[in-house]
Design a protein that fits this description.
Layout: H1 32-36, H2 42-50, E1 71-72, E2 99-103, E3 123-129, H3 130-138, H4 151-168, H5 173-176
Amino acid sequence: MEKTPKGTPVGVDDPYEFAERCDHLTGDGRCRYALSHAGDDPEFARARRADDYCCLAGEEDCEWRDCPQYRSTTDGRECVRCGLEEIRMAHQSSARPLLEEHHLSYHGGDADNGRDDAEPSHEITVSLCRWCHAKVHNSFARVDDDVNPDTEALATREQRRSDEQAEFGFRSASERFERSTDDRS
């Protein structure tokens, strides 16, 4: 199983099994990275420009892992392990999100030499709820385990739904300010 630079498991053997389409891929199959960030990797941009900016992975016999600029980050809507959906509480800035971004790819150029500061070669992330995230890093739990949400996770989500529903409820101004109609005389 893949590990972080600090040695904790990431929950997968091959991060590319969970890799989605590249974040740089446009709707018409072109590479947004080569179009927008040509100065960051001029050789890559030149090669894409020569091929009308077509995505490298779209070429015959190429995969996502073949592109040096590949990146697949999560949308953060649902835990890929247990299916818990995110409910954000906009009015509570101190409320911790239910879902967290989990990096699957941690090895880069110098990781094999034991250096902890090696940059990942590709950024591949998925969403995990806080409870699944802890289990993956603290044990041998896998991202592809078929599990149900933790009971504490369900309770937290339901409390957020209740809070959200309470916000939609109608209360008259007199109820909100604890005034009765008798006080107006």
